[in-house]
C-alpha cells in the first residue's frame, strides 16, 4: 500500500516522455471521437423518431436531446470507453515505463496479439456491465442517503479498474506458473480507487487511463528488486 503514492508520482513524472504523449493523444482523440459519433447517431435517431410521430421540429429539439443524452452517456460510459481504448495502446505505455525504469522486465515482456487484446477488453467490458447492473438495486436504495449511491458506484468502479489495470500489465509478463494476479486485493482496490476518482474530474479524466496503466506497471515491477535500472 505504501508503494502506491510513489507509483503515481513516477507515472505523472513520465508524462513528458514522447512515447507517453503519443499514446495519450491517440487515446484522447479516439475516446472523444467515439462520443462524437454517439452524439451524431443520437441526433439522427431522435430526428427520425420525431418525424415518425409527426412532431414538427427544425432540428433544434433533436440536437438538444442529442447533447443531453451524449453528456449523460459520457458520464456513465467514459470509464469503459477510455479504458477499452487505452487497452490497445497499453504495450506502448508499459514499454515506455519499463525502458526507463525496469529494463530487465522489458527484456521479458511479450506483446499481445490483437485477438487477445480484444478478448481481454471485451471480458473487462462484460465484467463492468454485470457489476454495475448488480449494483443498481442497491444504488436505488442508497439514494435516500444522498452520497451513498455515488460512493457505491465509486467502490464498484475502483474494484473493476484495479483488476483491469493489473490484468492489463500482468498478461504481458505472466509466466506459465502464475495463476493469480500479482497485486493484493487491497492494493488493487486502492489503485482503482485513485483512478476512479480521477475519472470524475474534468481534464484529469483524460489522463486517468494512461496514468493508471503506468502506475500499475510500477506497482507490479517494484514488488521485487530490479538489479539494473535504466537512466532517466
Automatic annotation (TrEMBL):
<protein>
    <recommendedName>
        <fullName>CysZ-like protein</fullName>
    </recommendedName>
</protein>
<feature type="transmembrane region" description="Helical">
    <location>
        <begin position="20"/>
        <end position="44"/>
    </location>
</feature>
<dbReference type="Pfam" id="PF07264">
    <property type="entry name" value="EI24"/>
</dbReference>
<feature type="transmembrane region" description="Helical">
    <location>
        <begin position="189"/>
        <end position="220"/>
    </location>
</feature>
<keyword id="KW-1133">Transmembrane helix</keyword>
<feature type="transmembrane region" description="Helical">
    <location>
        <begin position="129"/>
        <end position="156"/>
    </location>
</feature>
<feature type="transmembrane region" description="Helical">
    <location>
        <begin position="64"/>
        <end position="90"/>
    </location>
</feature>
<dbReference type="InterPro" id="IPR059112">
    <property type="entry name" value="CysZ/EI24"/>
</dbReference>
<keyword id="KW-0812">Transmembrane</keyword>
<keyword id="KW-0472">Membrane</keyword>
